[in-house]
Amino acid sequence: MRTYQTLTVETAGRVAIVTFRRADQLNAMNRLMQGEITESFESLSGDASIGAIVVTGEGRGFMAGADIKEYAAQTGPEFDIFQAAGMRMYAAIENNRKPVIAAVNGFALGGGMELVLCCDLVIANQFAKLGLPEIKLGLIPGGGGTQRSVAKLGRSRANFLLMTGAIVPASEFVAAGLVNEIVEVDRLMPRALELAEMIAAEPAAAIEGLKALTAHAVSGDLDDGLTMERDILGELYRSEIGQQRVKEFAGRSTTKAKKGGP
Fold first, then answer.
1. DSSP secondary structure string, 193-258?
2. How many CB atoms lie within 10 A of CB 206?
3. Exposed, middle or buried: residue 45 (CB in 10 Å: 0-12, 13-18, 19+)?
4. Rounded to two decimals, what is the model's pTM?
5. What digits encode the pLDDT tens for the residues 211-252?
6. Beta carbons within 8 Å of 138's beta carbon, 6+ residues apart
7. Chain-centroid distance, C-alpha 83
8. Labelling 60: which of 40, 103, 124, 227 has CA 20 to 30 A away?
């Protein structure tokens, strides 16, 4: 597996673990890191041996946004290139064929929260905090934060984060549905891996189909989504594993009925 300078990619069975490794910078994202995130996620998306991905950060931070020192030194054209490359990076996560689970271990700010917004499930420890503080620099999010925050949190909640730059405990995002669970520090990775292994054990085609359908449901037309759902279900039902599991379940139900069991 390829070696990176700003992150590591490890595997545990059918689960890939991507860990940002710029702890001394709270894993702030520079151009090198941006490119390596894109490359690693695009590679994992096409890897048939991987069924799910967990992404986390080393040290006290998940990702504290862009590397402001590098950001400040960019020329106008360099800034535009950086932003365009960022769109590809976020797409590599959001549109990944594998479910992506964020294990948020600390600050997820700016581009870090935008990355969380691209993930399919989010587990955070009790000290994790999220925010989109770009307004404090007189800027706005440039990695889809204005759009994905509204889609996942609602407009009023998104406006509060965007217009005040507030940094909010992850626990406050559970009710909104962005964060699935808050766990103790020492339970963060075990719980994220437990979920990833559970998902990776299911048929890849079914998981991929579910991811596509729920993504479509956020912003797509309902009738188109229902057609997609019907078509994907039909393919899965006719597949070898679909037929096998349905028949196995039917056989178990018949046996229980004959024995008078529940």
1. HHHHHHHHTS-HHHHHHHHHHHHHHHHS-HHHHHHHHHHHHHHHHHSHHHHHHHHHHHHHHHHHHH
2. 17
3. middle
4. 0.89
5. 999 998 987 777 887 887 888 888 888 889 988 988 887 787
6. none
7. 19
8. 40
**Burial zone of 13 (CB within 10 Å; 0-12 exposed, 13-18 middle, 19+ buried):** middle
Closest to 14 (Cα-Cα) out of 57, 59, 44, 56:
44
What DSSP line would sit under 63-116, residue for residue? EESB-HHHHHH--HHHHHHHHHHHHHHHHHHHT-SS-EEEEE-SEEETHHHHHH
Tokens of 83: 């932003």
Residue with tokens 């769109």: 87
Residues forming a β-bridge with 182:
124
Degrees (nearest 5) of the Cα angle 22, 26, 27?
Answer: 40
Arithmetic mean of pLDDT over the chain: 92
Task: State pLDDT tens for residues 87-120.
Answer: 999 999 999 999 999 999 999 999 999 999 999 9
